[in-house]
Amino acid sequence: MATYRDSGVNIEEGYKSVKLMKEYSASTFIPGVLNGLGSFAGMFELGKYKNPVLVSGTDGVGTKLKIAFHEKKYDTVGIDCVAMCVNDILCHGAKPIFFLDYVACGKLDSKTASDLVKGVSQGCIQSDCALIGGETAEMPGFYSEGEYDMAGFAVGVAEKDEIIDGSKVKNGDVLVGIASSGVHSNGYSLVRKLITDLDADFSGKTFGAELLTPTKIYVKPVLELVRNFDIKAMAHITGGGFFENIPRMFKEDFTAFVNKDSFPKPEIFNHIMKLGVSEEEMYNTYNMGIGFVLCVSSQDANRIINKLSEMGEKAYLIGEVRTGDKKVCLK
Q1: Residue 225, domain extent
Q2: Which tens digit of pLDDT belongs to each residue from 92-109?
Q3: Which of 8, 26, 79, 95 lies 20 to 30 A from 89 at CA?
Q4: CB 299 within 8 A of CB 254
Q5: Where is the PurM-like C-terminal domain (predicted)?
Q6: Could you tell me if 58 and 152 lie in one domain?
Q7: Beta-sheet strand order (sheet of 148-159)
């Protein structure tokens, strides 16, 4: 008689992976979680909000996973998966409250799958949100053996009258940029085309190790700023770089003038550009050292930068906002 295992799906390995994942999930539980992994759905109680609005976002890790396959290191890309989602919903002042992940593979290895979810749990802890559910799909014949795909879904909450939507931005406001941790999780198809030897030395480590550096999660420091300052708009610098993402923070037509010499560029970006990428393409693809941007009044900028420094974040006054077309001008 034919069995599911004969087709390439190992249910027992799936049970084993779930058991390992439950431990990581439990470490993320915050007040509001009503049940753990294993139910048909995750449940979260909103608690005391006057007029709550749920804010959601979904994303994946992309071809950065190829670097993880090469390095055989799977416990950091889960952080990227969380970061790409929670940093997006943070742009509207929402506090992430729970996260769900999706992992797909050709042949399930419980250790690899649990390492992926270990990274997710670490990202959730950094975001102060709970991992309350997910799905692991074994799909033989669809994915190559040894390769995985990963995506996630985050839900946050904000009071309706406290949502940050860019409506308060005015001519003369300024831009504060918070440093990134490196390439984050965008532009890896280009990176892999240009950097073919991941084992080669780069600044005392391999290119593979450098490129696996997890995406920085900005939730805790930025929410602290939101509680104490008038943050008018925010942008997560992901795919599309400066040119696509900064204008997304404006509700009306404003031009962002960015001083490209106002912040240091991580050496990895200088290296990529030397391999034949134009400066315009770099700023249209990568974060160039700034992973998150705040729009604030000029009189608040220095206090905000100092507060970020107190919280261990490097931040810079990178530009200003003027009435005009919805675009970015580098100077």
Answers
A1: 173-330
A2: 999 999 999 999 999 988
A3: 26
A4: no
A5: 171-326
A6: yes
A7: 52-60, 148-159, 95-105, 130-138
